[in-house]
Design a protein that fits this description.
The chain is mostly helical. The chain folds into 2 domains: 113 residues, Four Helix Bundle (Hemerythrin (Met), subunit A), CATH 1.20.120.350; 97 residues, Helix Hairpins. Helices cover 69% and strands 0% of the residues. Helix 3 crosses helix 4, helix 3 packs across helix 5 and helix 4 runs antiparallel to helix 5. The chain is globular and about 60 Å long. 16% of the residues are buried.
């Protein structure tokens, strides 16, 4: 009986023919995209090559994960700090050779900043929105004195103070310092940076408006910086004081800015420190 069933099954299988193979599946979408990319890369025209370069430049301007992206950020940060230090040193009396060396270094750094500004504008998909963004406006203010240096406009030299503000983009929560350090350290560093920016920018403005009329007290940038620290910390020694109306206005704005921004950021740091684990 069992042998008969086997014979019937074998005959049934022979009648049906060999088992059919499953239909060939289409390649996955990712594979299709890869094939299309490889095909396009072999027949890429010059306009597409330029587009590819734009995408790469834009990526490395925003990237903080790859070594090259971090290197770009750290290079810009270093150049901003050097340019700000040069601005401070130029308020002191120096030999002609030292002053020429500082001017040459500043020219090189500012040329790099101009190229960076133009590249950021070029790789942006929404150029109008990028142009009016806060970071782009800060970059533009920082390079304006260099762009119009041949016009010898003294008023534009004031904008050199805003070079230090170029570091603001790197103190975002999602950017370089936030990724490289813990959140507690990042908030503390950002608080110090806010305090330093207020005093640095105020000192620059005070030096420009007070030095021509009150050069005995505001002789160098350090004198203005000393006054800003004393005023902002409410110590008030009284050994240095602005005598011009603009100097007093700048002092008022500096104190009000510190009274608003510093406690606001300090509260965020305190909340982070006292938060239960």
């Amino acid at each position: 009986m069992i042998g008969g069933e086997k014979i019937l099954a074998s005959r049934k299988g022979a009648a049906e023919g060999p088992p059919s193979l499953p239909p060939k599946a289409d390649p996955p979408r990712a594979e299709k995209r890869l094939r299309a990319k490889l095909y396009n890369s072999t027949s890429m025209v010059s306009s597409n090559q330029k587009l590819d370069i734009r995408e790469r430049i834009h990526f490395y301007f925003e990237d903080i994960e790859t070594p090259l992206g971090r290197a770009v950020d750290f290079c810009i940060i270093g150049l901003v700090i050097i340019a700000s230090v040069i601005f401070v040193f130029e308020t002191y009396e120096a030999p002609p050779f030292s002053r020429q060396t500082l001017e040459l270094a500043e020219t090189i750094i500012m040329s790099i900043f101009v190229a960076e500004y133009l590249l950021r504008l070029w790789v942006s998909d929404q150029k109008k929105r990028h142009f009016f963004s806060i970071y782009s406006l800060i970059d533009l203010l920082a390079i304006l004195p260099f762009l119009f240096v041949s016009f010898h406009l003294q008023i534009l030299q004031v904008f050199r103070i805003f070079r230090i503000l170029r570091l603001v983009r790197y103190f975002q929560v999602t950017h370089l310092f936030a990724k490289s350090t813990g959140e507690d350290i990042f908030l503390a560093v950002r608080l110090f940076f806010t305090f330093f920016c207020i005093t640095f920018i105020s000192s620059g403005f005070l030096f420009y408006v007070e030095h021509p009329l009150n050069g005995a007290e505001f002789k160098t940038f350090f004198d203005a910086f000393y006054f800003s620290i004393v005023a902002l910390t409410t110590v008030g020694f009284g050994d240095i004081a602005p005598i011009t109306q603009w100097g007093r206005v700048i002092t008022i704005i500096m104190i009000l800015s510190g009274a608003i921004l510093i406690p606001w950021q300090l509260s965020g740091l305190i909340k982070r420190l006292v938060r239960p684990a």
